[in-house]
Amino acid sequence: MEYVNLNGQLVRDADAKIHISDLGLRRGYGAFEFFRVLRGVPVFIEDHLDRFENSSRAIDLEVPYSRAELEGFVRELIRANNLQSAGIQLVLTGGYSEDIFTPGHPNLIIAPIALREYPPALYQQGVKVITHRHEREIPEAKTTAYLTAVKLGPRMKAEGAAEVIYHDGKWVTEGARSSLGFVKDGVLVTAKDGVLPGITRIHALRLAEQLMPVEHRAFTLDELYAADEVFITSSTRGVMPVTRIDDRLVGNGQVGPKVSALVKAFQAHVEEYVARHAAVDSRWSIANSQ
Amino acid sequence: MEYVNLNGQLVRDADAKIHISDLGLRRGYGAFEFFRVLRGVPVFIEDHLDRFENSSRAIDLEVPYSRAELEGFVRELIRANNLQSAGIQLVLTGGYSEDIFTPGHPNLIIAPIALREYPPALYQQGVKVITHRHEREIPEAKTTAYLTAVKLGPRMKAEGAAEVIYHDGKWVTEGARSSLGFVKDGVLVTAKDGVLPGITRIHALRLAEQLMPVEHRAFTLDELYAADEVFITSSTRGVMPVTRIDDRLVGNGQVGPKVSALVKAFQAHVEEYVARHAAVDSRWSIANSQ
Q1: Residue A144 near residue A91, CB atoms below 8 Å
Q2: How close is the nearest chain A Cα to the Cα of B221, in Å?
Q3: What does the pLDDT look like over A71-86, one tens digit per residue?
Q4: Nearest CA in chain B to A6
């Protein structure tokens, strides 16, 4: 990618550097956000910018730009890099700190990243996930605290897993980079609180309510192992069926009808969103590039 | 401070910048170390470099410099900044990452920071600490994961507390930036495992064994509240007496005799270390500046 946005300025990627006194770098103090760009459209950008502001507030940082400015930076970045299909990450750090502990004026990074497309076969066959005992710090906020997730990367790869699901020894919360839910006896169950408000999850659950009863409640690892169908949700994956957890099959190891219907409903929902916004965004783009 | 060391090079602080694709910045993926410099001597540097290598290994990063090189960088930095009394932090990050998730070649930062001296009165009167439910990720390693600690900064300040002590609802582990122990009926109790191997703690416990029986075992918040004497240890504070935990007094609220003796023994131990190494270090410095 040729350009990123650093503190409100579009700069060449090669020049995008920050001083080492930044608290994101030195103390892992930063809010994080990620969304997809599809055919040039930032998908569910309103929800993502809402959450970015909430995550920032949860760690006592104030985004030093208005919502209109943030959205402008994103659209300018999409245009400058001519992004069609990609991801965009936002990071708001604790800023430069003299004592390397007390937050200063936040630094904002908005950077595109290349995304691999998931093979359609994965949505028909499902993926494997592994489990790990861990709770994210400040679970309601999306932050740069991915130490455990990054460290588990090689284990995931070795075990052929698409994701790691966190639990506390009994209760299941969320994935390292996804939310999750399961279907048992026709009812969809997903966590109620103590988890990140996943944007894909919110949209998917709204669609799921048309398809089956939905329960928001705490659930255990044993319940997850005994589920008929399991799925994870994330901005990159959408709704993705899970057919294996650790060394156990989910149900008969095949993608079930309820999750399969939800996968399709969500894909259609995204398509509809992109089609609806592509026209608007292209007018925005023309108006703002003159 | 005028100079820092970035990836083995002494550079002016103003020029010490890293690219935004660094995994320490974007995913909080970094090993951390901190030690004091007293009269130009890096205190217990051998132990700190040992732990830095261990922490790096714990998050699957390899320090890309030999021990002799690392020590050379530190001594060169002390000389270049003419450091007499200061702190030095080391950070080894996951490096530049194309997918912003998979670690690359690590980036090394060695940077001095100004240290306030703690008023001697604090060692005679003791300090207040507050408690918070939290467990550090990968507790045996010192990493840049200080999200909770930094967020608690304003609460500490508002409550006049010198430190936050972490517990899991029952068991006490360690401070946000310190280790701790207590004395009950003449016996010193300190955590056995699941905590950072504090360098000051290790040295202090060795001295404590000359003064009283020492038990390494898990202990609860209730036990801590009921202790006769409590102390925290850290590189900046040495051994510091705690006379208040949340809204409760420790014992009668005065610094007790056992902790008082330990404070003095540790101060003498550091003085002895600095005196012993000052002569050697000045020879090293002369030999290497020619």
Answers
A1: yes
A2: 21
A3: 999 999 999 999 999 9
A4: B20
Is A17's CB within 8 Å of B18's CB?
yes
Task: Tell me B22's DSSP state.
Answer: B
- pLDDT tens for residues B82-100? 999 999 999 999 999 999 9
Question: What is the C-alpha end-to-end distance of chain A, expressed in Å?
Answer: 23
**Which of B21, B151, B234, B236 is most worth mutating to test chain A (most A CB atoms within 10 A of its CB)?**
B151
Q: How far apart are CA B27 and CA B101, in angstroms?
A: 7
Largest Cα–Cα distance in chain B?
58
Rounded to an integer, what distance in angstroms lies between the CA atom of residue A34 and that of residue A44? Answer: 11
C-alpha to C-alpha distance for A285 and B251, rounded to whole angstroms: 68
Unique residue bearing structure tokens 């900046």: B236
Q: Which residue has the tokens 């270090």?
A: B281
Domains and their CATH numbers in chain B: 3-113 (3.30.470.10), 120-272 (3.20.10.10)
Q: Are strands A248-249 and A214-216 parallel, antiparallel or unpaired?
A: unpaired
ipTM: 0.95
> How far is residue B101's CA from residue B76's CA, in Å, rounded to a whole number?
33
In whole angstroms, give the CA distance from residue B113 to residue B87: 5
Strand partners for B165: B131, B175
pTM above 0.90, yes or no: yes
DSSP strands (E only) in chain B: 3-6, 9-12, 17-19, 30-38, 41-42, 86-93, 108-113, 127-133, 163-167, 171-175, 179-184, 187-190, 214-216, 219-220, 229-234, 238-245, 248-249
- List all residues 6 or more positions away from A254 whose beta carbon is below 8 Å from its beta carbon: A126, A243
Q: DSSP labels for B157-213?
A: HHTT-SEEEEESSSEEEEESS-EEEEEETTEEEE--SSS---HHHHHHHHHHTTTS-
Comparing CB atoms, the residue among B6, B99, B147 nearest residue A28 is B147
